[in-house]
């Protein structure tokens, strides 16, 4: 069956398939850490577990939206997925084989496959190609490195931008855990947090990273719009353009730079054209 990663059911199915292929007699928590590509029991491990639970809840909600009359039929065995998810609460003390016991391949796992196919047809988030993800990830990694190296961006602005960039990196790296909607949300937090705090705009405008920062948020904005609207684009609609928030941030940074470069230094009182005024 075709795997769809443009909806939460498809991503859950991909993760479950990975879990089936792990060492079944090993610690479930250790195996899930490897699947999530995070440190065992580190903060990102628990964030990944929370995201897994969110996807489970999202599947039920979205199926009720797209199949209001028949969702109970498609979700008949979905409770097995929810029961299995509850095993994260004891994943330290059970093996992977025991963790997966509630999810039967011919019922609960099959329900995931059905939901994935339906959501792909009726509520697709869109999807970025591997090359698009790789290109964006390279830009993010380069900017993180630049922010960490420069001396002209400090304090709260620096730490906040690094936090947001690292979250975007996490979303881009974990394709089986995060989709275009998650990338859009991470991007919104970045641009919204800059737009709504003038001090961050000012700090960016004075930093060497300004040009590459603008380049990244424009690239992310276009990629999110392209991924989310791929169907309309293939049908001949205009290509997506940068959103107004991104454009406004770009203009604000450019305006600050223009104002800074146009400031004329004032001569000290009593001096004109390099000569002192005669005393009276």
Account of the 3D structure:
It contains 14 helices and two strands. It is about 65% helix and about 0% strand. By secondary structure, it is an all-alpha fold. Strands 1-2 form a two-stranded antiparallel ribbon. It has helices spanning about 10-20, 30-35, 45-65, 70-75, 80-85, 95-100, 110-120, 130-150, 155-175, 180-195, 200-205, 210-230, 230-235, 245-260, and strands at about 270, 275. A hairpin with a 2-residue loop joins β1 (about 270) and β2 (about 275). The protein has two domains: about 10-120, no CATH class; about 130-260, no CATH class.
Short description, anyone?
The protein contains 14 helices and two strands, in the order H-H-H-H-H-H-H-H-H-H-H-H-H-H-E-E.
Structural descriptors:
280 residues; mainly alpha; 14 helices; elongated
Residue windows where pLDDT falls under 50 for at least 5 positions? 230-237
Structural class: mainly alpha
- Give average pLDDT, whole number: 89
**How many separate structural domains?**
2
In whole angstroms, how far apart are the ends?
A: 95 Å
> Got a strand count?
2
Q: Into which percent range does the helicity of residues fall?
A: 55-70%
Tally of separate helices: 14
From the alpha-carbon coordinates, what is the Rg to the nearest angstrom?
25 Å
Order of H and E elements: HHHHHHHHHHHHHHEE
Please outline the major beta sheet: 2 strands, antiparallel
